[in-house]
Amino acid sequence: MSENKYYFPSRIVEVLNVPFTIKLATKNYDRITQDIFHQTCFSIEKDLAQIVDGVYPFRTDSLIRKLQSGSIDPLLDYDTFQSIFAQAKLADEMTGAKVEGNLEIENDSSGLIKGWIIEKVFEKNLRPLLNNSEISGVSLTSGGDMKVATRKGADFYWEIGIKDPNDFQGIATGYYLKNGSVATSEMIDDQNDISKIKQVTIFSAGLIDADVWAKTGISAGIKKFSQMIWKSKLTGILFDQEEGEIPFKNGILKQA
To answer: Where does the record locate the signal sequence feature (predicted)?
Structure first.
């Protein structure tokens, strides 16, 4: 989208074997910008560790495990946990699946916890960097979840590649995005007769919302999800087993 040359320093931080990729876009990757990037990566790694070992320690004594065992203490004691649980219940109602029973990051079928982590870390550590005129864009990604932002007035766009569900090494299409969240959900059981949708990608302002809708699309099936797309004015792309690639924008489904 721009002829300007950009540098893209990036680093992968792993938490419980889940990789989080931190990336900047800058026209001038000098010593000062390098120091900013390294310090930011250090802070993000520290915050991720605190989340895992603190309020959300994904262990046998975690809030999620306590909730699964029947205790309501996590809902009474932690406001943020109440928020995520509410989102999980919303996903339950949309999909008919039990999302909140499987929120641990190691097997994150809902993406809600991971999405919340990305949102929290992004807003604290990455978005403030856009106040620096040398930094054009910031990004935090993990699996099918991505959060990006661009400095106001910058001519930079993030290139978002949508993988081909029929070719794990291939890219089906691409988008340009300045600000927002992207979530992708894939059909795990290809023998599922309820849904013929193989993959759904949702673009939204908030990552948790994008995660909920992406998972909903996989579970709902093409007919029901098409109605949801229209009613909720969703933007993204889905891959149907019979119809192929179907992009949609603000609720309108289009030809590929």
So the answer is: none
In three state form, how does the secondary structure of the chain look?
CCCCCCECCEEEEEECCEEEEEEEEECCCCHHHHHHHHHHHHHHHHHHHHHHHCCCCCCCCCHHHHHHCCCCHHHHHCHHHHHHHHHHHHHHHHHCCCCHHHCCHHHCCCCHHHHHHHHHHHHHHHHHHHHCCCEEEEEEEECCEEEEEECCCCCCCEEEEEEECCEEEEEEEEEEECCEEEEEEECCCCCCCCCCEEEEEEEECCHHHHHHHHHHHHHHCHHHHHHHHHHHCCEEEEEECCCEEEEEECCEECCC
The CA-based dihedral angle spanning residues 5, 2, 129, 78, taken in that order and rounded to the nearest 10 degrees: -130
Q: Residues 123-156: pLDDT tens digits?
A: 999 999 999 999 999 999 998 899 999 999 999 9
- Please write the tens of the pLDDT for every residue from 46-74: 998 887 665 454 444 444 444 445 444 44
CA distance 200 to 213: 9
Could you tell me which residues are beta bridge partners of residue 235?
A: 203
pLDDT, tens digit (0-9, with 9 covering 90-100), for 7-32: 999 999 998 778 999 999 999 999 99
CB 234 within 8 A of CB 213: yes
